[in-house]
Prior knowledge:
The complex is a heterodimer of chains A (353) and B (467).
Chain A: H1 2-12, H2 24-27, E1 31-34, H3 35-49, E2 53-57, H4 72-76, E3 81-83, H5 88-100, E4 104-108, H6 119-125, H7 129-132, E5 142-148, H8 163-166, E6 173-175, H9 180-192, E7 197-202, H10 205-208, E8 210-213, E9 226-229, E10 234-238, H11 242-255, E11 260-264, E12 267-269, H12 273-283, E13 286-293, H13 298-310, E14 319-323, H14 333-336, H15 340-351
Parallel strand pairs in A: 2-3, 2-4, 4-5, 5-7, 6-7, 10-11, 10-13, 13-14
Antiparallel strand pairs in A: 1-8, 6-12, 9-11
Helix pairs in contact in A: 3-9, 5-6, 11-15, 12-13
Chain B: H1 7-20, H2 28-37, H3 40-47, E1 74-77, E2 80-83, H4 122-147, H5 161-170, E3 176-178, H6 184-190, H7 194-202, H8 235-248, E4 255-260, H9 267-279, E5 283-289, E6 292-293, E7 296-297, H10 310-314, E8 317-322, H11 326-343, E9 347-352, H12 371-379, H13 383-393, H14 399-422, H15 441-456
Parallel strand pairs in B: 3-4, 4-5, 5-9, 8-9
Antiparallel strand pairs in B: 1-2, 6-7
Organism (chain A): Camelina sativa (False flax)
EC number (chain A): 1.2.4.4
Domain Transketolase-like pyrimidine-binding (chain A): 33-208
Amino acid sequence: MAALLGRSCRKLGFLSSGHGARRSVSTETGKSLNLYSAINQALHIALDSDPRSYVFGEDVGFGGVFRCTTGLAERFGKNRVFNTPLCEQGIVGFGIGLAAMGNRAIVEIQFADYIYPAFDQIVNEAAKFRYRSGNQFNCGGLTIRAPYGAVGHGGHYHSQSPEAFFCHVPGIKVVIPRSPREAKGLLLSCIRDPNPVVFFEPKWLYRQAVEEVPEHDYMIPLSEAEVIREGNDITLVGWGAQLTIMEQACLEAEKEGISCELIDLKTLLPWDKETVEASVKKTGRLLISHEAPITGGFGAEISATILERCFLKLEAPVTRVCGLDTPFPLVFEPFYMPTKNKILDAIKTTVNY
Amino acid sequence: MALRLRSSTSKSNFLNILRYNNLGFGTASHAARHLRTHDPTLLRVSQNPISRFCNTMAEKLSSVGENEDANAQVMDFPGGKVAFTPEIQFISESSKERVPCYRVLDDNGQLITNSHFVQVSEEVAVKMYSDMVTLQIMDNIFYEAQRQGRLSFYATTIGEEAINIASAAALSPQDVIFPQYREPGVLLWRGFTLQEFANQCFGNKSDNGKGRQMPVHYGSNKLNYFTVSATIATQLPNAVGAAYSLKMDKKDACAVTYFGDGGSSEGDFHAALNFAAVMEAPVLFICRNNGWAISTPTSDQFRSDGLVVKGRAYGIRSIRVDGNDALAMYSAVHTAREMAISEERPILIEALTYRVGHHSTSDDSTRYRSADEIEWWNKARNPLSRFRTWIESSGWWSDEEESDLRSRVKKEMLEALRVAEKTEKPNLENMFSDVYDVPPLNLREQERQVRQTIKSHPQDYPSDVPL
């Protein structure tokens, strides 16, 4: 199953449909890398380009449980790349203090499922640090990385997608890459962005996704969504690993004569409403898909906004194909997940409304 | 400037305190047996509070098999060598005696004989006392202003002036401060003016914080004092990160963070102390143990011997000090600071004191404690009068200077209040700026919408916020 996914991921060719002049990165060649290697490269570049940057978290010293921090401690020293005690509130709190002194603090939370002890520090301290001080202080150098999402066997505590909690917090940014090349450029942007950022990495793609990644230092802008597949009949919006599933649905829909436009949101907070609005005004239909439970998920925010902006252009209700409102189940994961066929059915229903 | 009177013994004195308060074994004879059969090198290792036990391999001593005495066997577990004991022995939940409290001035402000302290110059002592008086007057005037409806809210520092001022005096201006909310005296010492305090309390356009937070949420990057946030103890791990930065940048400075007895129950306290020890961060944790967290006495807060014993659990050197003794506070902080920076370690300072005022203007503490108790602490154990006695006996202060100071400060304070009240509020655009470094599209749109709404319904909005 993993191999099949791997093949189909590669076949789908992340980013090969470059769109617009700024997507010059997507046409560059590079080395074939998987997601964790691309992230590793970004971290090497970040630490190399700024001597006052640090990487820390649980187990990052030996390379991390997903190997994203391989080689960093050896190259930059244990003073800059180090293990922390097992305490997420401490990790993020410490990172905020480091960032407040003008350093880049690149923090790793081992699984997004464990980010909640740090929620107070993120919401009440990091997000408000600049505002409450009247811009005398800021912790913009803080970047929090966490693997998120379904992995086939992760159950309640190794599969969560908590992005919606963070999208409700003014003052931070939330970014989710879909592929290795995107991840490297987006992560470097997050690290260098003067605001605290939460960066969720689709763990399923750490090894599964392989793509050509340029070896040099490059950044992909935040708060800019990308149309990764053009179409006329319906707009699909997603992020992270879910896009590969959505792209499969688009391919099959095309065989049945439905032309789908697929958008990668990339930055969920602040999100690029204009790109989605322009697309929906063209197609008249919107489908949003995410792994996180449907109720209160970020799809609801996109739906409400697009309804406000595009009501008269809509041919059908906005539809969401998402995870169900249960804790992430183990044996029942295939039933929980927003699958290609669930999406395909929703596309057809929407188009035939 | 500061001349330590018994400098050569101060470090060993602290180690003595550590040994003295060693959490006891069941009986003296057991302790003796341990000492007898230990390899002397092991004793040294176990007495050193910060030695890093890196050995994770179980090693058998080559002498095993040769030495039949089970008591001589020692095994390495991850974390280092430990001796075995065939007795079931629990470490007692508390020492037989409470950790003694360092003080230098007695209740009457007289210097205790043979006390160790860091000498202060006349200039510093007079400034310390003057600032304590200023803080007291500022608190009283602001409190009254809130009662009169001129201010929305206020929290006093009454009773804790010595902790505030003396600790600030012992630090350098480059030391970065992470306060809770009852430490405005540190700002005052560093030069924050009465006008600046008043501006923040009124949230006017001269407020550093641009009117975004409640009164007493001061902050000043110029004075290295991070902006107050009302969340309890969240500043503690932040201070550790900042201290680490100072260490990495090789600054001759430390981070200093304050919190109350209540704050020590928060998870962030445990997170911060553990991190500080592991990261070997030069940070001072100053706990104002004032007996109350709003209405919760310390007996409902923890069951340890206060805060000072908690340091050891994390491998942190700690001291208990009389927070109402300005001279002792000064000495303790001065000494701790040097240790923190030169030895790259955290220090925990428990300053015992009493919260004479109510928790805030939203609290009436006579509902949960007796007015007599409050009055006693205010009169008999007042930190200002003790220090005043000492500086007067040193020939550095007089009644005349006292009344001059008080009338001058009162006048300045009332004027600052008057000016702050009259100063207009920050412009509406300050609602939307600084959420991010640059306002994103959604905020620009929301500002437009709000301005539209104001045009339609001006009566819904305060007239003192310029648009």
